[in-house]
């Protein structure tokens, strides 16, 4: 059975408060990483209808700072699935009061579905419905191969 990516898409919004800030008055990078992992996990759970664990995170490059009172929007989308694993893209934006969004980060996370005993379990397929989704699928396959190679090299 294949499912559509839109069925598992997650959008989460946070307003930055003082407890989210580091000593320089910017959003803690670790807090953003926590939120990214949370959104990716929710996408994985919605798609697989199983528990998931995070296996890896790729590319946490911070493009711009995030400050107190900013609205931060995280959008999680399924990009690729394997047998027991899946890849989720999480895009992070600062959203201005007029609704304009500016990118902060894009991360790709690999998740593994697990049953109640922690054993990996089968992931439903992903229905590719657009050229953009096909491009993400192909790029996801390349990223998987790259992760396998890096793992062999000890990274």
TrEMBL record:
Name the UniProt record assigns to this protein: Acyl-CoA thioesterase
Taxonomic lineage: Bacteria, Bacillati, Bacillota, Clostridia, Lachnospirales
Family: Belongs to the acyl coenzyme A hydrolase family.
PROSITE patterns with a match to the protein in the record: HOTDOG_ACOT
Gene3D superfamilies: Hotdog Thioesterase
Listed PANTHER family: ACYL COENZYME A THIOESTER HYDROLASE (PTHR11049)
One of the GO biological process terms: acyl-CoA metabolic process
Alphabetized UniProt keyword annotations: Hydrolase
Species of provenance: Gallintestinimicrobium propionicum
């Amino acid at each position: 059975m294949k499912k559509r990516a839109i069925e598992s898409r997650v959008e989460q919004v946070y307003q930055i408060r003082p407890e989210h800030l580091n000593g320089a008055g910017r959003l803690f990078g670790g807090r953003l990483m926590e939120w990214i992992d949370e959104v990716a996990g929710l996408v994985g759970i919605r798609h697989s209808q199983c528990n998931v664990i995070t296996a890896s995170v790729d590319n946490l490059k911070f493009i711009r700072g995030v400050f107190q009172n900013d609205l931060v929007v995280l959008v999680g989308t399924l990009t690729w699935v394997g047998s027991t694993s899946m890849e989720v893209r999480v895009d992070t934006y600062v959203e201005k009061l007029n609704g304009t969004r500016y990118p902060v980060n894009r991360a790709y996370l690999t998740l593994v579905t697990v049953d109640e005993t922690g054993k990996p379990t089968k992931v439903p397929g992903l229905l590719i419905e657009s050229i953009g989704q096909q491009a993400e699928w192909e790029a996801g396959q390349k990223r998987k191969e790259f992760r396998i190679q890096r793992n062999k090299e000890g990274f």
